[in-house]
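Q: Here's a chain of 481 amino acids. Please give me its 3D structure as tokens.
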Amino acid sequence: MGSGSFNFKFSQCFGDKADIVVTEADIITSVEYDASGDFLATGDKGGRVVLFERNRSSKHCEYKFLTEFQSHDAEFDYLKSLEIEEKINHIKWLRPIQRSHFLLSTNDKTIKLWKIYEKNIKLVNSNNLEERPGAGGAATQRRRNKVLLSMQNLKLPQMAQHDKIIAATPKRVYANAHTYHINSISPNSDQETFLSADDLRINLWNYDKPDQSFNVVDIKPANMEELTEVITSACFHPVDCNHFMHSSSKGTIKLCDMRQNALCDNRAMTFEEYTNPINHNFFTEITSSISDIKFSPNGRYIAARDYLTVKIWDINMNSKPVKTINIHDQLKDRLSDTYENDAIFDKFEVNFSGDSRSVMTGSYNNNFMIYPNVIAAGDGDHPVVETFDAASASSKQKQAKPAVQQDGDETTAEPEEIVLQADKTAFRNKQFGSIQQRSARTKEWGDDIDFKKSILHFSWHPRENSLAIAATNNLFIFSAL
């Protein structure tokens, strides 16, 4: 990708462009590019997965509809008298095999492995007993068939190509391993295993063994009244197959090594920023909960999104983040409003660019923000993951140096911000804003914030500056090509 251009412009929109009543089942809940960027998948509240393919005949970033299938259906847990939604929580692409593509999809309880492939449909277009027009009744027709069925006239039925379709087949179903709602799945770089995480446990699966999983993290206390935190997200390291991380509602991130212990949480390296208790308020515990974590593609950095900030961590320095980006400064004085309308519980995602240098995240009023080059060029070009344990973590913390060069207190400096809007104004090909318009955007928000128009789910193309953004029931494509 190189340094890249960040002149993002609207490219495409899939969905209803007019103002209509949005059906709940059509709201997009997951967006994911595959490793090549040639395919794009979305999941919605109705349990459907929709796939798009890059239009290779176009010079611009354009996608065309490929196929759609029902991934999950609503269920009812009779033991707990609990309804299980069909809503797709996560989609992850796996490595393709020959001309077939594979992806994992999950709702609250069940994970499925899907195979997507091109299927040829053939029909019989000629046989020995075809009807022939002519006078006479059934007796005449039978006499004709007897002539046709003589040894000299017998012939094999002929098959003709009828059509090509894209078929989706569930190859594996990974069920009954989670008591609580699954919040994330993550394929491993070894191409053999993947993680699934719920509120209190993280399980390790082998793709070929759907009836068996290994519990690698368990934070459930013996007495549930002593429960103080839950797991909010989990993610495998993109390069090192032994390492994974998970975040909590307390704002902590733990980096685990599966070679250290069967239950990895016991000897994890913890990333947590100290905050003075004097500055805590009623909402601190809610706003500090991490909603999403991502490794940079090179494996060197971690991006963590909570309600008010995005923090960038160097995995070799857990004393403090190398960069803190304030997202919702204008909401700090309105947290009581967001609490009353439940907006404070919105789970915003965060994403790295393919070159590991820039990040993006979402906001309200259908706004989303890109922060170009928050990681300095040349930093972390090669993944670095050290074997660690709890005893040596503190000494490493003292020795580690931040990879981002800091002038003064760089971790609190505001980086450049590009603000775009995924709504009808995008059809006019206008860029919504840039760093020069930050104050104007803050004023424009004022009291007029539409908390129902939130950009929670998106994906950054792995090889270029193109973005796929979910805005309620619409999928927007923005590109700098």
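Q: Can you summarize the key feature?
A: The longest helix spans residues 138-148.
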